[in-house]
C-alpha cells in the first residue's frame, strides 16, 4: 500500500494550497458532487474479480487534491476519508477505508429501485430457480417491478464541514496579517508568513491516527509453536509456515462470517415476524441464496486444514486438501451470479418495511457484526474465492522444489481461477439481464412511435448508460448493443417512468460528431461519415504500406483534447436515413464526454466486424475532386481496369499499377455515362458535345484510347444518338443490346441497337460519307418503340425489356413491341402500390422464378404473372435510395449517407456502410439460375459466332493487347463501384477473401467478367 508522505508541521497542511479550489473545500457536499462528476469510473479487476463502475484509491486522492488545489496528499486523503465515513463510496470488499493506493478499488454507494409497485415482470431467469437455502426443493422467482432506477443525484450527498479547510469568519482576516482570533484556520499560515513564533496557549493538533490502517495479522505461526521449533527451520520455511497459517486462520474467519449470516440474520428472520410470513421464505432465499451450501463446503475445508495444523507443528503440505475440496466450489459461482438480485431484494425490503429497517440497524450494531453492514458480509463469498489464488501463490512462492505442493498447488490455483472466470461471466450476465428487464418495464413510448428493442432477448446487452444535458433539462441515455435510446425521467403519483425522448437510433445508422471533429476537420463538416465508408481489406492496407500512405479506419476514435472552454463537451447524435434527425447533448465533464465517444465507437466497430458481408477496396483517392468530380465508371479486363466519366472527360485507370493515377484518354465535357462492351472492343459514352451543347451517345474503339493524347481518340468517335436522356446495355433475346432513351415529361422514345462485331466492321470498307461521319458503324438498329410517359430506368429480362416510368414498371416485348404493366391490376394486395402517386420504380431483379421489385420506399416480390408473392415479405428502406445493386444473396440500396445491405430471402438488414455524398457508379447483376440458361434460347447471332457474346474471340479476330479468357456463359460483371466525396471504391463480398481480392486486382491471368452493363 502506498503510504502518504509525512508532514513536519501543521503549517504544511495549508502551505501547498496555491490555486483557487474548484469548489469551497470545507463543505463536504460540494466536494462530493465535484468528485463524483470528475472521477473516471470503469470496469476494474481486483484478485481476478471484475467490479463495475469502480475507481482506485490513487485516482480518488489525485482527484480530491485537484478539486481542493493542494499538493498535500495527506490532506486530500483525510478529506476523502471524511466522504468515505458517510458511505459516499466504499471499498469493493468492505474491508477498509480509503487508501492512497492504485491496488485498492472503490465504488459509489448505489441506491437500487424504490418499492413503488404497479405490476410484476415475468420471471427474470429460470436459471435462478434454486432449492430454498439448501435442503427443501422449491421454485423461487425473482420479481421485478415497474420502478425507477434512481439517478445518482437521488442518493444523498455527504454533509458536514471539514474544519481544516474552512475560511475565517472575520471579514478583516487576510493571509498577510495576523488574525485576532486564536481559532482562525489561517493563523498558522499567517504566523509562518510573518516569521512569528507560535504563541502559547491552545494549539491545533492534527490526528494522523486514521491515515494508516493497522492490519489485523491474526495469530502468527511463530507464536503458535515453541521457540525450539522456530529455531529449527530455515528462514524460507518460516515464511512458508506463516503463509500456510494465513490460509488456515483466514479460512476460519470466513466460515465464522458465514455462520454469523446464518445465525444473526437467517435464523432470526425465520423466527421473527419482521417479514410477513407469506413471503418470508422467498425473501430469505433471494437475499442469502445458497449460503448454506457455501458453509457446508468451507466447513469441510476449514476442519481439514485445522486438523492438519493440530497434527503437525510444521505443516508439510496443504495442496492435497485443496485438491480434494476445490472442485466442489460450484456454489460460489451460483452465489455470485445471483448476488445482484439478493441486493435488490434487501434494499427494496429495507426501504418499504420499517420493521425490517429497524431490525437491520439493530443487527448491524451487534458486537458480532464488527461495525460492518450486511452488504459487507454478502460480498465475502465472492471475495473469498478471489483471495484463494493469492494466498496459495504466496505459499507456492516459498515452497521448495522437492515438496509435493510444488506440483499440487498450481493445479489447485488453476481450478479456482476457472471458477472465478465463471463468476465474472455469470454475474455480468445477471447484471445485464437485471438492468434490461427493469428498463423494459420503465420505458414509455409516445403513441404510434413504439419500437421493439428486444430488451427481453437473452442476447441483448446494455453497454453503457448515463446522463447527458440538453438546453432545457437532462436526458438519461442508454447505449444498447444495437441501438441508442434517449429517455426523459418522468415521475407521477402512481409510477416513475422513462419516456422515450426521440426515436431510438440503430447503431448502424448513428453518426456521432463532437467538437474535436470540427476542430480537426477545419471546415465544419465532420469526416466521420467519410471514414465510416473506408474499411479497407488487409490486402489493401498492405498496398498502402507499400505506397507509404495511410487512411483512417472506420469512424476513427476521437482524441479528446484538453479544452476548458465552456460548451466544448457537446455531442451531436445524427439518425441517418429516412427518419433523419439530429440531437445535440452536452456531457458534464471531459471524462464523461470521452467515455461516451469511445464507448459508442467501440460498439459500432464491434457491430461492423460482426455483421460485415462486404468490404471496401480503395481504387482512387484525392484525384477526382472539385470541378472534376467522377460521374460514372465501368470496369473491364477482369475488373483490373476502370474507365471513369468526369466533368472533364474520360479517364482510364490500371489497378495493377498501384502508384499510377488515372490518366485522361478522351477530352469530352460532362460525361454522364460510360460502358464497355469488351467483346466488341467498344467504349460507349454519354456526354455533352462542345459544338451543339446537347447530350449525345458516342462510341469509341478501345484501341483508340491514347493516354498520351486525349484528342486522338476523338478522331475515331462515332455519334450514335443526340438529345439522349440515358442509355443501358444488357442481354436480352440472346443478344447484346444497347437501349438509348430520349425521355420527356410526357413521353419516352426507345431505340435498341446491336453492336457489330469488330472483325466484320473492320473488313468492310467505309464509304466516303461514312468517313465524314466518323468511320464504320459500331451499332446497328434492332427495335424502336414509344411509351407515352416519362421513363427513368431500363432493366433487361430474359426475353423482355422492363421500363421504370411514372406509371410503375412496364414490360415491353421486343419482338411484338407490345407494352403492359408489370403488376396485375386484379391483385388487391398491390393496392398499397397503386394508391401511391410519388413512388419511383428503380430496379427489378429476377430471383429464381420471382421478381424483386425495388422502389424508392420499399421492395417486395411478384411472380411472373405480376401478382404479389411472399406476402409476408416487405423491405422498407431505412434510407432514400438513389441506386440499387444485386449480389446474391444480398440487395444493396445506395443513398447519399450510407449503403444499406439486406438479405433477399429474409429482407433483414445485414450491414450498413456509412459514407459522405455516396453515389453508385456501376453495378451489374450476375444472372440468376433461371437467367443463366441462355443457351436454351433458339436464336443465332448473324455474325457467325453464335449467340454467345462471352465466347472466346474468333481465330481471325484481331485481339486487344490485354485480352483475357472469358468466364463461362451466364456469368456477369459483379463489380460494384461507388464514390464518396473524392474516393472511388469497390464493394467486394467478404467471402471472397483477401487472397481472391489480390488475385482479382493484380494477377495477369484473371478471368474476364464481361456481361454488358
Automatic annotation (TrEMBL):
Family matches, as PROSITE patterns: CNH (PS50219), DH_2 (PS50010)
Record Pfam families: CNH, DEP, PH_5, RhoGEF
Gene Ontology molecular functions: guanyl-nucleotide exchange factor activity
Domain CNH positions: 627-928
SMART domains xrefs: CNH (SM00036), DEP (SM00049), RhoGEF (SM00325)
SUPFAM superfamilies: DBL homology domain (DH-domain), PH domain-like, Winged helix' DNA-binding domain
PANTHER family to which the protein is assigned, alphabetical: RHO1 GDP-GTP EXCHANGE PROTEIN 1-RELATED
Listed name of the protein: RhoGEF Rgf2
Organism: Crepidotus variabilis
High-level lineage: Eukaryota, Fungi, Dikarya, Basidiomycota, Agaricomycotina
Amino acid at each position: 500500500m502506498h503510504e502518504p508522505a509525512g508532514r513536519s508541521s501543521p503549517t504544511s497542511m495549508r502551505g501547498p494550497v496555491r490555486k483557487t479550489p474548484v469548489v469551497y473545500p470545507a463543505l463536504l457536499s460540494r466536494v462530493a458532487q465535484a468528485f463524483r462528476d470528475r472521477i473516471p469510473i470503469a470496469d476494474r479487476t481486483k484478485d481476478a474479480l471484475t467490479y463495475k463502475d469502480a475507481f482506485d484509491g490513487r485516482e480518488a486522492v489525485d482527484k480530491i487534491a485537484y478539486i481542493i488545489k493542494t499538493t498535500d496528499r495527506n490532506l486530500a486523503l483525510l478529506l476523502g476519508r471524511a466522504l468515505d465515513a458517510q458511505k459516499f463510496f466504499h471499498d469493493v470488499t468492505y474491508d477498509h477505508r480509503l487508501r492512497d493506493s492504485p491496488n485498492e478499488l472503490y465504488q459509489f454507494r448505489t441506491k437500487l429501485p424504490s418499492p413503488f409497485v404497479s405490476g410484476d415482470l415475468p420471471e427474470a431467469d429460470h436459471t435462478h430457480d434454486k432449492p430454498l437455502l439448501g435442503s427443501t426443493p422449491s421454485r423461487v422467482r425473482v420479481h421485478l417491478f415497474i420502478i425507477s432506477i434512481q439517478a445518482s443525484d437521488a442518493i444523498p450527498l455527504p454533509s458536514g464541514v471539514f474544519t481544516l479547510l474552512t475560511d475565517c469568519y472575520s471579514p478583516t482576516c487576510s493571509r498577510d496579517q495576523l488574525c485576532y482570533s486564536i481559532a482562525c484556520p489561517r493563523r498558522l499560515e499567517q504566523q509562518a508568513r510573518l516569521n512569528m513564533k507560535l504563541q502559547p496557549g491552545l494549539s491545533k493538533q492534527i490526528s494522523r491516527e486514521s491515515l494508516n490502517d493497522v492490519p489485523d495479522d491474526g495469530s502468527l505461526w511463530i507464536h503458535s509453536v515453541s521457540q525450539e521449533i522456530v529455531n529449527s527451520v530455515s528462514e524460507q520455511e518460516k515464511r512458508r509456515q506463516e503463509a500456510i497459517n494465513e490460509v488456515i486462520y483466514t479460512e476460519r474467519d470466513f466460515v465464522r462470517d458465514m455462520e454469523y449470516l446464518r445465525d444473526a440474520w437467517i435464523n432470526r428472520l425465520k423466527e421473527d415476524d419482521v417479514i410477513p410470513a407469506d413471503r418470508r421464505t422467498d425473501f430469505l432465499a433471494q437475499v442469502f441464496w445458497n449460503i448454506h451450501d457455501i458453509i457446508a463446503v468451507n466447513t469441510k475445508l476449514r476442519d481439514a486444514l485445522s486438523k492438519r495444523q493440530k497434527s503437525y507443528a510444521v505443516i508439510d503440505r496443504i495442496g492435497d486438501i485443496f485438491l480434494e475440496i476445490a472442485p466442489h466450489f460450484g456454489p460460489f459461482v451460483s452465489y455470485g451470479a445471483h448476488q445482484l438480485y439478493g441486493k435488490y431484494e434487501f434494499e427494496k425490503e429495507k426501504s418499504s418495511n420499517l420493521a425490517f429497517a429497524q431490525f437491520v440497524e439493530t443487527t448491524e450494531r451487534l458486537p458480532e457484526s464488527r461495525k460492518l453492514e450486511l452488504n459487507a458480509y454478502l460480498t465475502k463469498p465472492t471475495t473469498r474465492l478471489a483471495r484463494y489464488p493469492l494466498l496459495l501463490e504466496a505459499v507456492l512462492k516459498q515452497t521448495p522444489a522437492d515438496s509435493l505442493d510444488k506440483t499440487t498447488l498450481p493445479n489447485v490455483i488453476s481450478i479456482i481461477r476457472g471458477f472465478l472466470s465463471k463468476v465474472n461471466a455469470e454475474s455480468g450476465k445477471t447484471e445485464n439481464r437485471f438492468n434490461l428487464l427493469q428498463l423494459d418495464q420503465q420505458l414509455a413510448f409516445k403513441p404510434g412511435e413504439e419500437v421493439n428493442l428486444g430488451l427481453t432477448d437473452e442476447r441483448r446487452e446494455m453497454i453503457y448508460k448515463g446522463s447527458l444535458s440538453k438546453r432545457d433539462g437532462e436526458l438519461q441515455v442508454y447505449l444498447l448493443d444495437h441501438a441508442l435510446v434517449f429517455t426523459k425521467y418522468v415521475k407521477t403519483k402512481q409510477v416513475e417512468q422513462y419516456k422515450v425522448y426521440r426515436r431510438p437510433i440503430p447503431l448502424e445508422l448513428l453518426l456521432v460528431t463532437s467538437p474535436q471533429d470540427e476542430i480537426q476537420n477545419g471546415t465544419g463538416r465532420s469526416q466521420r461519415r467519410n471514414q465510416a465508408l473506408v474499411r479497407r481489406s488487409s490486402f489493401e492496407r498492405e498496398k498502402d504500406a507499400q505506397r507509404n500512405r495511410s487512411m483512417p479506419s472506420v469512424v476513427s476514435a476521437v482524441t479528446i483534447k484538453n479544452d476548458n472552454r465552456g460548451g466544448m463537451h457537446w455531442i451531436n447524435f445524427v439518425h441517418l436515413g429516412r427518419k433523419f434527425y439530429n440531437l445535440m447533448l452536452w456531457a458534464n465533464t471531459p471524462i464523461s464526454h470521452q467515455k461516451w465517444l469511445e464507448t459508442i465507437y467501440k460498439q459500432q466497430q464491434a457491430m461492423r466486424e460482426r455483421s460485415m458481408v462486404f468490404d471496401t477496396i480503395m481504387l482512387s483517392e484525392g484525384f477526382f475532386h472539385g470541378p472534376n468530380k467522377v460521374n460514372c465508371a465501368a470496369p473491364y479486363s477482369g475488373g483490373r481496369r476502370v474507365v471513369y466519366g468526369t466533368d472533364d472527360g474520360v479517364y482510364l485507370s490500371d489497378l495493377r499499377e498501384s502508384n499510377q493515377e488515372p490518366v485522361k484518354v478522351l477530352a469530352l465535357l460532362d460525361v454522364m455515362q460510360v460502358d464497355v462492351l469488351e467483346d466488341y472492343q467498344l467504349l460507349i459514352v454519354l456526354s455533352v458535345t462542345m459544338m451543339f451543347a446537347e447530350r449525345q451517345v458516342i462510341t469509341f474503339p478501345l484501341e483508340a484510347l491514347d493516354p498520351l493524347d486525349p484528342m486522338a481518340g476523338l478522331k475515331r468517335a462515332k455519334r450514335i444518338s443526340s438529345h439522349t436522356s440515358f442509355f443501358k446495355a444488357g442481354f436480352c433475346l440472346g443478344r447484346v443490346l444497347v437501349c438509348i432513351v430520349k425521355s420527356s415529361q410526357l413521353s419516352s422514345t426507345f431505340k435498341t441497337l446491336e453492336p457489330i462485331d469488330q472483325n466484320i466492321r473492320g473488313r468492310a470498307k467505309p464509304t466516303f460519307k461514312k468517313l465524314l461521319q466518323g468511320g464504320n458503324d459500331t451499332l446497328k438498329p434492332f427495335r424502336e418503340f414509344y411509351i407515352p410517359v416519362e421513363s427513368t430506368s431500363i432493366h433487361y429480362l430474359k426475353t423482355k425489356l422492363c421500363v421504370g416510368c411514372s406509371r410503375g414498371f412496364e414490360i415491353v416485348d421486343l419482338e411484338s413491341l407490345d407494352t403492359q404493366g408489370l403488376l396485375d391490376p386484379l391483385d388487391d394486395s398491390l393496392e398499397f402500390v397503386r394508391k401511391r402517386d410519388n413512388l419511383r420504380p428503380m430496379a427489378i431483379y429476377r430471383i429464381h422464378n420471382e421478381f424483386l421489385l425495388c422502389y424508392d420506399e420499399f421492395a417486395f416480390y411478384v411472380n411472373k404473372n405480376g401478382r404479389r408473392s411472399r406476402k409476408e415479405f416487405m423491405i422498407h428502406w431505412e434510407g432514400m435510395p438513389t441506386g440499387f445493386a444485386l449480389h446474391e444473396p444480398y440487395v444493396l440500396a445506395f443513398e447519399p449517407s450510407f449503403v444499406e445491405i439486406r438479405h433477399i430471402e429474409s429482407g433483414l438488414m445485414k450491414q450498413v456502410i456509412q459514407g459522405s455524398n455516396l453515389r453508385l457508379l456501376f453495378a451489374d447483376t450476375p444472372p440468376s439460375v433461371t437467367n443463366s440458361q441462355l443457351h436454351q434460347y433458339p436464336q443465332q447471332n448473324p455474325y457467325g459466332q453464335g449467340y454467345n457474346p462471352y465466347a472466346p474471340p474468333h481465330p481471325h479476330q484481331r485481339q486487344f493487347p490485354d485480352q483475357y479468357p472469358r468466364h463461362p456463359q451466364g456469368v456477369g460483371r459483379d463489380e460494384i463501384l461507388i464514390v464518396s466525396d473524392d474516393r472511388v471504391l469497390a464493394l467486394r463480398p467478404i467471402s471472397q477473401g483477401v487472397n481472391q481480392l489480390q488475385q482479382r486486382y493484380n494477377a495477369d491471368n484473371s478471368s474476364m467478367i464481361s456481361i454488358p452493363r
